[in-house]
């Protein structure tokens, strides 16, 4: 096993932050510079993986040192950024939808090929104002935007995304929940569709505000994926890394762990695309 794809389905809100900035939102989430899409940066994800490996195997375990490296030696496994694939968006006409766009699907195809996996699907390409869905329905409202529904066969798309999702119950909802919109319209949801939460520190005696700040979070049920590459001759390190999720297939990433944020259900795709 030389390469693998890690599927990360958010079970709680995520805050892979970039620290404090000057602006309306004090603590925004990390975003890709050219696309403005939320991202879990590779160094942050690698740190989360190492922390979990140390909890499962022990801080001084030799396999942990081999996988992630030490001060004077590189690790055996390279970890990419976790990239966005499906973003939950509120729908005024029903339950929320998992929204994606042609660019994200095309990029996932390319990443699968990079990982040595098949990815031969035809990417749906809706026009502006159109929403491609798998089942006939009336006009679709996502947030305050309305879309003309175009019914198309999304099953090949669903089948290639499903292995990234750990829970069978969630995979069963995928066919009815996925919506493909135009790239230009998707970026609106990625920029403006995330929750902004106010947090406050109160004075113990007077209960007045001492520190009020606003932070951005990525909603639960968002789907990310990351690529993992083993160095030549050290392929067994990927198997060791996969092993840390056998007993408990969850990973905490990003900030706000103490308020329950950052938990993801992990799915592991190895060569051939099979989930573990």
- How many domains make up the coordinates? 1
Strand content: 25-35%
- Helix content estimate: 25-40%
Shape: globular
Q: Which class do the helix and strand fractions yield? A: alpha+beta
Main beta-sheet annotation: 11 strands, mixed
- Helical region count? 7
Radius of gyration: 20 Å
Uncertain segments of ≥5 residues (pLDDT<50)? Answer: none
Query: What number is the mean pLDDT?
Result: 91
Head-to-tail CA distance between termini:
13 Å
Order of helices and strands: EHHEEEEEHEEEHHEHEEEHEE
Counted beta strands? 15
Keywords: Antiviral defense
Organism: Thermodesulfitimonas autotrophica
GO biological process, one term: defense response to virus
Domain CRISPR type III-associated protein: 11-264
Report on this structure:
By secondary structure, the protein is α+β, with helices and mostly antiparallel strands. It has one domain. Helices cover 26% and strands 29% of the residues. The chain has 7 helices and 15 strands. It has helices at residues 42-57, 62-68, 102-114, 155-161, 168-177, 183-192, 236-243; strands at residues 3-10, 69-70, 73-74, 77-79, 83-89, 97-100, 130-133, 140-142, 145-151, 178-181, 195-202, 209-217, 223-230, 250-252, 263-269. Strands 1, 4, 5, 6, 7, 8, 9, 10, 13, 14 and 15 form an 11-stranded mixed sheet that branches. Strands 2-3 form a two-stranded antiparallel sheet. Strands 11-12 form a two-stranded antiparallel ribbon. The radius of gyration is 20 Å and the shape is globular. The relative contact order is 0.27. The mean pLDDT is 91.
